[in-house]
Specification:
By secondary structure, the protein is an alpha+beta fold. The protein folds into two domains: 6-53, no CATH class; 67-178, 2-Layer Sandwich (Herpes Virus-1). The chain is built from eight helices and five strands; from the N terminus they run ααααβββαβααβα. It has helices at 6-11, 15-26, 45-53, 67-77, 111-114, 127-133, 141-154, 162-178; strands at 91-94, 97-100, 103-107, 122-126, 157-159. The strands form two sheets. It has a three-stranded antiparallel beta sheet with strand order 2-1-5. A two-stranded antiparallel ribbon has the order 3-4. A hairpin with a 2-residue loop joins strand 1 (91-94) and strand 2 (97-100). The radius of gyration is 31 Å and the shape is elongated. The chain starts with 5 loop residues before the first helix and ends with a helix.
Length: 180
């Protein structure tokens, strides 16, 4: 017994279904430009977010603090990382390799939560602590410091003795002068 064709099966069902199925299969027998379907595109993520939450996604874009705020924060924190209390530019050991702590401007309340760049939300952090903290939220600075210090131990990051740090800094400076 022959299997009925798609069109024949469609004729055995509801007339509306038959019409839709027939139109669908007829499209393969027609030139493609004959069937241009008009549709409204789905909303963009930004449009959907605005509709759901009643405010634009992100609001202001993520930025760095203004130069005047950077200087104020550096002075307030003594050019030290808020989380590890090390001087920016000092050396630490990570897996027995010396690493110079670089400046990282951190949103204490992560930008992902607050979506704001207010001058009161910026802190000076070293790049290592900033990477560890990432987008985690803490109630207090002390809670953040304890969390980050525990990760320093896990990642084998060690503070250097000031005398050893001075020797390593002199070696680095000498190496920079020799390198073209």
């Amino acid at each position: 017994m022959d299997k009925p064709t798609r069109r024949a099966r469609a004729s055995q069902t509801d007339p509306e279904v038959q019409r839709v199925v027939t139109e669908f299969w007829d499209t393969f027998d027609q030139p493609a430009d004959r069937y241009v379907v008009e549709h409204t595109p789905p909303p963009t993520v930004r449009e959907a977010y605005l509709e759901i939450y009643g405010r634009p996604l992100g609001g202001a874009s993520r930025q760095f603090p203004r130069p005047v705020d950077k200087e104020r924060i550096r002075e307030r924190q003594g050019n030290r990382c808020l989380y590890c209390d090390e001087l920016i530019g000092s050396l630490v050991l990570r897996r027995n390799e010396p690493i110079e702590l670089r400046t990282a401007w951190d949103h204490f309340i992560p930008y992902a939560y607050a979506q704001r760049n207010g001058h009161d939300n910026w802190v000076l952090a070293c790049h290592l602590c900033n990477l560890i903290k990432h987008a985690k939220m803490f109630q207090t600075v002390m809670e953040a410091q304890q969390f980050i210090q525990a990760r320093w131990v896990e990642k084998r990051i060690e503070r250097l003795d000031p005398a050893l740090q001075a020797v390593l800094m002199r070696e680095r400076m000498a190496a920079r002068e020799i390198t073209p």
